[in-house]
Amino acid sequence: MPDVFISYSFKDKEIPEFMYKHLTDEGLDVFMAPLSVRPGERWDEKILKKLKISPWVLFLASKDACASAIVQQEVGVALGTQKNLVPIVWDMNPSELPGWVNNVQALDLRNASLLDAREQVLKIAERIKANKSNGILIAALLLGAILYVTCTK
User: What is residue 31's three-state secondary structure?
Assistant: First the structure.
């Protein structure tokens, strides 16, 4: 199961690759369509499946991404299924985000150096890892409780 799904416009290339590299360097399982869909797989099925099971969605919210019908669908699914959604802007003001996502706090990288941007990505990675660890701990506690109840009968 991917830890994070990256939603972006194919017109953007550098920022998605930057995010993918630094998140995977942090040990996260990242779904980014061109790198994650294998030859012969159907794009639409694979993307929807991975989007549905990813707890985090990074919306790389460029002007092109906000105008993309496919990106709008992906973000709509993320919002509708209550994913942890992080809009990330670099070529527009966060206040220019479309209405369907402007109530979610964005990460603003407009004036960030590469070092600053990397630091922000690492902070997001830490949040994702902490969220993942909490989920694993809860699952382990539930399994322990089930085993306890089953064994004490």
Answer: strand
